[in-house]
Each structure stands twice: as C-alpha cells, then as structure tokens.
Amino acid sequence: MSSIDPTLDTIPPSPVLRGIKDALPMMLGFVPFAFVLGAQAAQKGLSPVEVPMLTGFNFAGGSEFAAVALWSSPPHLLLIVAVTLLINSRHLLMGAAMVPFFKGQPLRKVLPALFFLCDEVWALALAEGRRTGRVDLRYYAGAAGSLYLTWVSCTAIGALIGPVLGDITRFGFDMAFPAVFLVMLAGMWKGARAAFPWLVALIAAVLACIFLPGAWYVPAGTLAGLLTAYLMARPE
C-alpha cells in the first residue's frame, strides 16, 4: 500500500507559487532587456549601486530607458522627471482597469501593491481577474515580486558587465522587450473587433511620434485607444 496520501493530489497550488509560475516566461524575457538597460546606464556614468536604485524606485522599463537616454552631466532633472511622468501616465488607466478586481480588499494592501504595477504585471493580473473575478493579492505578490526582483537584480548585473562587454545590443538582447509584448498581446487577443482600439492607438502613437516632439506619442495612443473603446461600448 502506498504511503502517499491521495488527497495531496487535489490540493490547489499556492497562489504565490502560481503567480511566480505564470510570470516565469516574462522573467526570462526581462533578463536580456535588463542587461541592456544596466549596460547603457553604466555607459552614462551611473554606478552598479545607482542603477538598481533607479530601477527599484521606478519600476517601469520604458521611462527608465528614457531617463538613461536623457542623462547628462549635470543631469537635467526637471526634464527627466517630466518625461518619466509623461511615459508613466498610462499607469493611470492600468490602475483604473484593475479596480473591479481589487474591490473589497483593504486599501492599505492594494495601494502598496500598485507600486509594483508594470505592463507585464498588469497583463497577468488582468488575465487572473477575468478568469476568477478577482485578483488574489497573494497571486499578485508572487507575480509582481518575482518580476521586480528579476528586473532590479539584472539591471545591476548589466551595470557590472556592461563596461566589459561594450555595446551588448549587438547580441540582439534588445529584442527581448518587443518579444515580451507580443506574447502579452497574443494572450489578450479576443478577436478583431476587440483589437480595433489597439489599432487606433497604434496609428495615433505612430503619427504623434512622427509629428510631435518628445514622448507625446504615449498619451496620444492611450487616449485614442480609450476613446475608441468607449465609443464602441456605447449602446446604440
């Protein structure tokens, strides 16, 4: 007779471990992309200590790349802050989209959790919310925590190895970011009609990138997609 309790097979996995498991493909995509950011930051004069401070206090890859690109000696801090706020403005809509799935959970826990809300965490949490009707903060902690630690630690490693390897984009590491987003979009595909606001947002962002200075393509694409989705959802 086997000594293994057959009921163990029916025990559901820990929400934390399930979050880590779901985040694993994105964690692997983070590694080369974080190396690129860390190496570029080191080339701008940031130390291996300053780089993880940058990525740890502002967990948003797009604005971090923009900040590093604008970095100079002395740095134009007001410009960097303004561009960072502009690029991260999409988080307002991302956070608003999560409200129904956090409903009923204590605000003192939800607000700190939103600090770790990047695009990839948002996609995982949104999929979890649509599947179960709510986002378990333990699941969220597993997914967000693993991605956060991977990102911060690998940007620090990138800052260390960057001066040794030189321009590591020649190895193709910078393709990790588009690859991760393609995977996210594929997982959120709900048909051609549901994707139409994405197309409008893309066209608006491209036009703004061509004709407007700075990072105005971010709010332009966001607002165009949001307005399209709102008009499509209105009753006839």
From TrEMBL:
GO terms for biological process: L-valine transmembrane transport. Keywords: Cell membrane, Membrane, Plasmid, Transmembrane, Transmembrane helix, Transport. Pfam families: AzlC. The lineage of its organism: Bacteria, Pseudomonadati, Pseudomonadota, Alphaproteobacteria, Rhodobacterales. It is a multi-pass membrane protein. Belongs to the AzlC family. InterPro entries: Brnchd-chn_aa_trnsp_permease. This is AzlC family protein. Its main location: membrane. It is found in: Cell membrane. The keyword Cell membrane applies. GO terms for cellular component: plasma membrane.
